[in-house]
Amino acid sequence: MNETLHRPDDLGAIGDILGFHIRLAHGAVYRHFSETFSDLDLTQKQVSVLWLVDDHPDIAQADLGRALQMDRATVMAIVNRLQGRGLLVRGASRIDRRRQTLTLTDAGKDALARARVAILDHESWLKGRFSAVEVQMLIALLSRIHGAGVA
Amino acid sequence: MNETLHRPDDLGAIGDILGFHIRLAHGAVYRHFSETFSDLDLTQKQVSVLWLVDDHPDIAQADLGRALQMDRATVMAIVNRLQGRGLLVRGASRIDRRRQTLTLTDAGKDALARARVAILDHESWLKGRFSAVEVQMLIALLSRIHGAGVA
DNA sequence: TATTGTTATACTCTATAACTATA
DNA sequence: TATAGTTATAGAGTATAACAATA
How many CA atoms does the CB half-sphere of A50 hold within 13 Å? Predict the structure, then answer.
């Protein structure tokens, strides 16, 4: 049967797979984020890196990797791209010569400022379907999965 | 300050961004899935496609795109890969000659059977941190984001 | 020994654009 | 006009492996 299934409104047994719902939700967020940030030409990860570098001056790449749960090579690729666009600069650390400190340039701070405005739109779209209590509950549940920010 | 921030246990203001938590959770799930399926050499999306093709015989690529919220070209790439590995075959539809029906091969059914076993492990790892009620709550909240399977 | 940064490499997902065939 | 499949192309994220410098 089902050659006429043009609009599968029932997910079937796969609908019980929690990982499946996480992937779908992530995809939806990813697409809306991309639309919202098409003018700024910034991705989710790029904004996260700009944000954390601004929040933690002289943060190193390895720290970003831990905070955003990315491999060193992945951080490298993102930082390279941001540096290539002149949004941040690498500098030498004075206390540990293995490490490189990261600092936003003026252009980087400007991009982040505009990104924060766009994030308001994006988060409103996302959070608009939940009450404040539900948002906190969802964040708490998701935190149990990724395990970050648990002091 | 903060050049000594080697283990940022506090996410700072970015911790209030719901989209940020969704990305982190998705990343954690993605990594564990990859480990669990490294022997089978199947990705999340590939398993989802095998699963849906098995659930809906003669489903077409466009249907997969709607169910999994992927672009036509993205579906194409995944189906090509699965077909190249001999896990499914394309066939002509008899009622709409624009469409191609998709069907699992014996190898595809075998791969899916093994995938279902691996998914049990993966989902146990994922769901183990929640009560049954919390799992249902989380799925309901995530469904409000991706909007699929809502009849 | 462990960590940091780095380079090279490769794979997957994702999407856009343009084309053909069919409805 | 709209939909389905297709092809070509490109960008981004992700990871592994190996190496040098430093702790």
Answer: 26
Map out the domains of chain B as residue ranges: 16-145
Instruction: Determine the distance between B71 (CA) and C19 (C1') in angstroms.
Output: 17
pTM for this entry: 0.92
**Domain A17-145 top-level CATH class:** mainly alpha
Chain B residues in contact with A21 by the CB 8 A cut-off are 138-139, 142-143, 146
Is the domain spanning B16-145 CATH 3.90.780.10? The answer is no
**Residue lying closest to nucleotide D8, CA to C1':** B73
Type of residue numbered A116:
R
| CB of A60 lies under 7 Å from some atom of strand C | yes
Q: Which residue is nearest to nucleotide C17 (CA to C1')?
A: B73
Strands lying side by side in the sheet with A100-104: A59-60, A100-104, A88-92
Question: pLDDT (tens digit, 9 = 90+) per residue, A117-149?
Answer: 999 999 999 999 999 999 999 999 999 999 987
Residue ranges, chain A, pLDDT below 70 = 1-10, 150-151
The minimum CA-CA distance between B103 and chain A, rounded to whole Å, is: 11
The structure tokens listed for A112 are 């982040």
